[in-house]
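Sample entry (391 residues):
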Amino acid sequence: MMLETNLKETLAELSERGLKRKMRTIEGSQSREITLDGRKVLNFCSNNYLGLADDPRLGAAAAASITAEGFGSGASRLVCGNLSSHSRLEEKIAEFKGTERALLFSTGYMANLGIISSLYNRGDMIFSDKLNHASILDGILLSGAEYKRYAHVDMESLEAMLKAAPPLVKKLIITDSVFSMDGDIAPLPAIVALAKKYNASVMVDEAHGLGVLGKNGKGAVEHFGLEGQVDIQMGTFSKAAGSFGAYCCGSNQLIDLLINKARSFIYTTGLPPSVAAASIQGLEIIAQEPQRRTKLWKNTEFLLKALKDMGFDTLNTQTSIIPILVKDAPLSVRFSERLLEDGIFVSAIRPPTVPANTARLRVTVMATHTEQDLNKLLSSMKKIGKELCLI
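Predicted structure, serialized as tokens:
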């Protein structure tokens, strides 16, 4: 009974503060237009940046794999669950990213936990951007390494911490490439330069960079021309690639060590082979159809300029993740609800996902959004923004 009382009180407090969350049900495919709780709405909160989540070619690849390999992988990969589809995807992503080797993980969260806690321990130091993803923070805490959090994209803050660190201690700098709630891009060239200066390694989370940044969609490392200068690259197939799962790319020795020490890899059943097959297809489309990225950036630039011209605070976004700063959590929820009344689905993002007093709408653009879609969103944003006294 005590547990139920505590649960009730906690949920009531979350609700009162405008922080209680609930799940909404989508029927059918993940697309620019979705059926949400039985109603057709425009989707402006998906990470399906290139529109591949419902691309029939990914479905066909998955179906062919199921016919040939069945659905489940049966065991962890170190027992008997290491299937040929896994190996093909690892070879594909390593080749695409220009690294010696790659290793699959079930999710980006599990990848970050496994990578960080396997490579770093007590006595080591990890320097992490203040706005890095929660999975990075949890991986650091699990490792037991000394945690140094530098101010967001602030290289002076980072250098001061590196300068104060003992010179012989093992050091790692970790950053998201694209920050998932702010949409800005990490200053990777400066981070790499500082790592060289202070004898630190660099790990980049490319979850929101893969398929979006770089001439060939390889991510921020390619975008900045830093191939061969970043020690650890992880990312996911669940966003621009339209599939599921995660990867770590790096040297042969790095992957060998993770296979032997990463608990979130060792003690997890291998991905269904159909998921790996779909991810391979997604990577091939990213490589072969650059026009998708061109359209994504065209849509992004159009929408971002219009929102700024209206007077919305979009922070320092540089990508198709466009935050609309509201500050007040209940007001952000109201804004989201009003948009849904207009047939537009945009999520309200509140603490603890973002810092206190920075609640926002998180608008995400897709390559498949039409000009009509964008204009409908802008019309509603302007109307509701004025109603709520935000512009």
